[in-house]
């Protein structure tokens, strides 16, 4: 790994600095001062059966030298060729951070909390809710960009919520001196309930083990009125350099072999069953499908399939 590669802490801290009020755009004023620059939508809503699902972009960041993060076990020529075929630059990547709200009609469930409580609260409000309306917070795993929004200025961001996470994930991090866990998760431990593979969050939402990215990383299947959608979390962190090539190593995967095996298993299921998914780091709005291609997979972005 290059000594100049960016640490996970620096990457995530940088993402948190993107101002939400600026609309997550990358403003570049021209000489006349009129250019607004590109702008990314921040809220996207659709239905899954009787559930209403909202993805929310709470941060975005451009990162240089992406092969210090993705495809660490392949040569530079192969990485460049794959990137060129996908028409994406080889020298930089765009990261997206996308918590999801699920309104079941009886509960308002937030999956992951972003990096910063204020930014996530603002996104929740843009989606038409308040932080106090969230009834459950589900943590897919405990990396900083998923737990950083649990607390705001030392207080609970989602004060009326119950907290749910995987037992294996909690047990792992509770045995470490991880600062993010100590500051954000541990203060809420007495309010948390824990689940394992196949357990239910509520009717129609079940946990699916997908270990490797972290020791207890979970995905969550929504199933309502004969429609399904999988909240993929960080199973695949890039639509080309991870999803399309599941055996490519990702720096943030704690057990790289297990993560690759989980990708092949889960993505194979999604492709075979034509089940859509939400990827936390996929290009916003983060919703798409998987199809098999060669020895790997191909990402098909959602267009209007879930709006009909």
TrEMBL record:
InterPro entries: MBL_superfamily_lactonases (IPR051013), Metallo-B-lactamas (IPR001279), RibonucZ/Hydroxyglut_hydro (IPR036866), TAT_signal (IPR006311)
Highest taxon above the source species: Bacteria
Pfam family, one: Lactamase_B
A GO molecular-function descriptor: hydrolase activity
Keywords: Hydrolase, Metal-binding, Signal, Zinc
PANTHER family with a match to the protein in the record: QUORUM-QUENCHING LACTONASE YTNP-RELATED (PTHR42978:SF6), QUORUM-QUENCHING LACTONASE YTNP-RELATED-RELATED (PTHR42978)
The protein's name in its UniProt record: MBL fold hydrolase
Metallo-beta-lactamase domain: residues covered: 96-281
Signal sequence interval, chain numbering: 1-31
Gene3D superfamilies documented for this protein: Ribonuclease Z/Hydroxyacylglutathione hydrolase-like
Family, per entry: Belongs to the metallo-beta-lactamase superfamily.
